[in-house]
Amino acid sequence: MDEFASIRHWTDGRQSEQRLREQGVVVGIGDDAAVVEAPPGEGGALQWVLAVDTMVETVHFNAATMAEADVGWKALAANVSDIAAMGGVPRHALVSVSVPRAWEPARIRRLYDGLYACAEHYGVAVVGGDTTSSPAQLVVAVTVVGTVEAGRAVRRSGAQPGDAVFVTGPIGMASAGLHYLLAAASGEQCVPLAAAEAAGTAALVQAHRRPAPSVRAARVLAARGTVTSLNDVSDGLASEAWEIAESSGVKLTLRESQLPMSGSMAAYARRSGVEPLEWMLYGGEDYVLLGTIAAADAAGAKAALAAEGLPMYVIGTAEAGAAGVELVHDSGNSETGRRAERRVPLAKRGYNHFG
Q1: Is 3-149 CATH 3.30.70.20?
Q2: Residue 235, annotated as binding a ligand
Q3: Residue 32 marked ligand-binding
Q4: Which residues participate in Mg(2+) 2 binding (predicted)?
Q5: Distance CA 208, CA 172 (A)
Q6: 145-202 pLDDT, tens per residue?
Q7: Class of the CATH domain delimited by 156-345
Q8: Is the distance from CB of 288 to CB of 214 less than 8 angstroms?
């Protein structure tokens, strides 16, 4: 197949005309550029939010850990999470693939299966992109355009002393899932989900392969007007906390006892002899949200999310002082019955492509 036949093979009939119209698509895939209408704002003007992410074979994925459809899902989900981290709604996507000879058209079609599944789940219209050859590895680059109410984008730089620090889901699961996949891999054969289910690690594997960005949670929180900063956990909780602390000029104090740990991750960590805190702080790719909120509204926000079946965990506080992040270890004293606290600076590290 030539380039244009391949594009039709991968994209034709994937999204209904109704879905595209709902997202304001005037001209979609098949022309030199897409044309979309700016959606009407609900009670006011909207601003565009734009994000781009790239996934490279052997850097972000390989055949032993992720099936083609998982690669497609995750490539789009990473961008959807960035839009959520601004309090926005993801709307349109542009997808570019650089394809080596080893990736025949059927494999790329399966990649698009996962990408379009993610697009349908989050209401995103895929409107175009680019296709090129690659000398060795597959490269997938996705740009997502979203919207947010004018002047309402939530940035990393708004945290205030006294705010509560929160996350919108358990952390460390994706890193634990990758640990299992690498340990269970046999050559280039992708570990089937059935094997993970038998090992009790299916939730961890799915967290790595098919992350679920917190779009709805972000919208509920942003609508309250009390969220002062947001960041998505892509490179690890510690790294994202440092980004908020430095952008806002505050110190974030996180409590180890309040960090949400899934039962399946705790069980797998025990079996593997791994300290789960390492995954939770430095693993990354969880794509939950880390943020700060006015302390007076933390309980109300948590209740609002719970009403929609969504979690929120308060994990610390923002304090005045030099920008930085501390972790509080607290433990009980069997003799006095009192809890002792030990504060330690949290290392500024996580996944870094150039570190």
Answers
A1: no
A2: yes
A3: yes
A4: 53, 82
A5: 10
A6: 999 998 899 999 999 999 999 999 999 999 999 999 999 987 667 888 899 999 999 9
A7: alpha beta
A8: yes
